[in-house]
Automatic annotation (TrEMBL):
<dbReference type="InterPro" id="IPR032466">
    <property type="entry name" value="Metal_Hydrolase"/>
</dbReference>
<comment type="function">
    <text>Catalyzes the hydrolytic deamination of guanine, producing xanthine and ammonia.</text>
</comment>
<keyword id="KW-0378">Hydrolase</keyword>
<dbReference type="InterPro" id="IPR051607">
    <property type="entry name" value="Metallo-dep_hydrolases"/>
</dbReference>
<keyword id="KW-0479">Metal-binding</keyword>
<dbReference type="InterPro" id="IPR006680">
    <property type="entry name" value="Amidohydro-rel"/>
</dbReference>
<comment type="similarity">
    <text>Belongs to the metallo-dependent hydrolases superfamily. ATZ/TRZ family.</text>
</comment>
<keyword id="KW-0862">Zinc</keyword>
<dbReference type="InterPro" id="IPR011059">
    <property type="entry name" value="Metal-dep_hydrolase_composite"/>
</dbReference>
<protein>
    <recommendedName>
        <fullName>Guanine deaminase</fullName>
        <ecNumber>3.5.4.3</ecNumber>
    </recommendedName>
</protein>
<dbReference type="Pfam" id="PF01979">
    <property type="entry name" value="Amidohydro_1"/>
</dbReference>
<feature type="domain" description="Amidohydrolase-related">
    <location>
        <begin position="66"/>
        <end position="439"/>
    </location>
</feature>
<dbReference type="InterPro" id="IPR014311">
    <property type="entry name" value="Guanine_deaminase"/>
</dbReference>
<comment type="pathway">
    <text>Purine metabolism; guanine degradation; xanthine from guanine: step 1/1.</text>
</comment>
Length: 448
């Protein structure tokens, strides 16, 4: 059934600007697309309002509630959900070998995988995340189960079957046996997803874990596959000192240079972290129109640096936000957008008070709440090439309905948005829609 939402909403237009409209009518078609938005000033406003009321299509948000676009998580390791919040004091290589690989190996067992994936997807929707780009494991059966769970729960998902076959950097018990196995498994997974979800609600992703875990042959063949089939690619890129230096030692080049040479960089590629990029890397990423998944919470533990988000946004490089479950401890993109702003402020000011203030930090690093909001919404949608991320006619109706904190003084729309984003708790997300369908409802009091 088509619906009309009468709502006050915020939506990002560009990194530096967002719009606010009060009590607009947002008309949504049967197939979950926003077909029309009528603002209060429009001449047909009252006519459309009574028509929606007459046809019983109207849903009016209760006072103090706002509509925001659904958030898009550009980097999430679904199988690491049981490990969220654990062992963040370990260096990356240690964390992978002692915690992550043993855990991911357990997904050979669907009875282990199923309740984890169900819980994660439910939690993500309750946090307002309407689309996610997931790493699975090396097991196609568990990856397909994750796809089924996302589809049933109504979360739009991009899912990768992880390729990792380098015996030097992966354990015996959790590795693709050969490049042939890594490639065949990827192809089978891509085909299975494309055959099952013909409407594209769930999409397959080519997923070399990262350069250290993969042999050169696998990286080359996955690159050929990505180029011939125009499928989304996800991987980690220059994510820590150890990882960045490993690739330089192995190839004499950086991650970005090597990913480009393998054919793994294009307008469908999403690169996680990227805290160690050189200026040449930045221009390669820009030229190839690849995107960066900024994971500020995870970066604080494993990144050995703070992503220059402000600089990258100014250069017009595509950036979205990622939770990086479980290098990040929370699936909330609110927590990540707050951290993105906080980390950028720390980058600007510096951290060592014994150094003179004018030499302590990196000037012009701070990003605004608006820029973080843009990354969580439009930035993510642009990176994945989906028609979502904003509240605009023609886009998909992916929304979250959020209750504002009590207001004691009048606020401008910009201040209201900032407060919604920064004083957020998960309990304020009252309802979530994906493609016009209600997929999460905390309680019924969000509409009149
Ligand atoms: Zn990751």
């Amino acid at each position: 059934m088509p619906i009309t939402l009468k709502a006050s909403y915020f939506s990002a237009n560009s990194p530096n600007s967002s719009s606010f409209h009060e009590d607009s009518l947002i008309e949504i078609s049967d197939n979950g697309q926003i077909t029309n938005i009528i603002h209060q000033t429009a001449s047909e406003y009252s006519e459309r309002l009574s028509a929606a009321r007459q046809h019983d299509h109207l849903i009016t948000l209760a006072p103090g509630h706002f509509l925001l676009p659904g958030f898009i998580d550009l980097h999430n390791h679904a199988p690491q959900w049981p490990q969220a919040g654990i062992a963040l004091d370990r260096p990356l290589a240690d964390w992978l070998n002692h915690y992550t690989f043993p855990l991911e190996a357990r997904y050979a067992d669907l009875d282990f995988a199923t309740p984890v994936y169900q819980d994660l997807v439910t939690e993500m929707l309750a946090n307002g995340t309407t689309t996610a780009l997931y790493f699975g494991t090396i097991h196609n059966s568990a990856n397909l189960r994750l796809a089924e769970i996302c589809s049933q729960a109504g979360q739009r998902a991009f899912i990768g079957s992880v390729a990792m076959d380098n015996p030097d950097q992966t354990p015996d018990y959790y590795r693709d046996a050969s490049p042939e196995e890594a490639i065949n498994k990827t192809q089978t997974f891509v085909q299975a997803i494309q055959d099952t979800y013909r409407n594209g609600f769930i999409q397959p992703v080519i997923t070399p874990r990262f350069i250290p875990s993969c042999t050169t042959e696998t990286l080359q063949q996955l690159g050929q596959l990505a180029q011939s089939q125009h499928i989304t690619v996800q991987t980690h890129c220059s994510e820590s000192d150890w990882e960045h230096n490993y690739v330089r030692e192995r190839y004499g080049h950086t991650d970005s240079e090597m990913l480009q040479s393998f054919g793994l960089l294009n307008q469908h590629s999403v690169l996680a972290h990227a805290t160690q990029l050189t200026t040449t890397d930045q221009s390669i990423i820009k030229t190839e129109q690849a995107a960066i998944a900024h994971c500020p919470i995870s970066n604080a533990y494993f990144g050995n640096g703070i992503l220059p988000a402000h600089e990258l946004l100014n250069q017009g490089i595509k950036i979205g936000l990622g939770s990086d479950i479980a290098g990040g401890y929370t699936p909330s993109l609110y927590a990540n957008l707050q951290q993105a702003v906080t980390a950028s402020q720390i980058r600007q000011d510096g951290v060592d008070a014994t150094i003179a203030a004018d030499q302590r930090g990196v000037a012009n690093s701070r990003i605004s709440a608006k820029q973080a909001f843009y990354m969580a919404t439009v930035g993510g949608a642009t990176s994945l090439g989906i028609q979502a991320g904003a509240i605009e006619s023609g886009l998909l109706a992916d929304f979250q309905i959020v209750q504002a904190p009590p207001r004691f003084a009048s606020l401008t729309p910009d201040e209201q948005l900032e407060q919604l984003l920064f004083r957020h708790t998960r309990h304020q997300i009252k309802a979530v829609y994906v493609q016009g369908k209600l997929v999460h409802e905390k309680e019924h009091n969000w509409y009149e």
